[in-house]
User: Fold this.
Amino acid sequence: SPPVITLAIGDGANDVSMIQAAHIGVGISGQEGMQAVRASDFSIAQFRFLVRLLLVHGSWAYKRVAKFILFYFYKNMMNVLTEYFFAFHTSFSGQILFADWLSLGYNAAYSSFGCIFGFCLDQDVKALTILKNPRLYEYSMYGQGFDMSKFFGWMMLALWHGSVCFFIPMYYMSFSPVRADDGEVMGHWFTGTTSFVCLILVVHLKLGVMVYSWNWLVWFGIGISLLFFFITFTMLCTYWMSTLWGWQEEMLGMSSLLFTTPKFWLCLLITPVAACIPDFCLKYMQTIYYPFPHNLLHEKELGYDENGYKKPDKGGSTVVTPN
Assistant:
């Protein structure tokens, strides 16, 4: 049976204590004043709006909050585990893997805009579909979006992604540490910065696997995060910020060294793909073999029938695409 969660709804001052005692309080703004509205968590104008508040916005909000919490734990754990792998690799010497300013911007800017726009606006199915299929509310009613098994699974993915983002750049970039064209030695900061860039790309690729409704705001959030990272990283590697201001002297010229090295770009292609292969496989298996009701209805909204074939478009095209 689902856990007991109480909801209280009222429109007058005599309902304030009931609204405050319940898990969720809903106030109706009417002719009996605004006391109930001020004491409530949510406010509606008419009682009939409660159905849409619970079934539609409640379902959306639960899935958004669940994914938001799991994703934030995941991306921070992946960042920390990468540093832990480096600590083991260097016998706990105290040396850091990432530059200080890169670590400071990771959680504040480089990996936040995409998940804010992606999760806060995400809709797995449309509102009309939810109202026609009230069973979709069972997903949130039984807490299927967030539990200890899901949390443990996400931490395992963070462990895998962190290990890939560390070991592939560490051993691939240090395999031939001297550039053949000019003899430039690619040292510790070269490898650590490559690992950090791979970390940023894996986080956004994982975000793309989770988002259902892609719109221009989601693309804008992901684009602004990546653009802001590469701009600030390039600025950090300039003389007037790294040396003259003394922000990160070891990063001087690092951007030009990385951007002119073919191995760097090849590593940016190999590492995110290798890291997210389990995510793609798990997503495929869950959607195809163990689907939730919202997975089936989402595919139906995209135009796929029960056999997994794309329905003809309105123009009468007979071309079908297997799922």
Q: What stands out?
A: The CA atoms of residues 29 and 116 lie 30 Å apart. The two ends are 35 Å apart (CA to CA). Residues 312-323 have pLDDT under 50 and may be disordered. The chain has 14 helices and three strands.
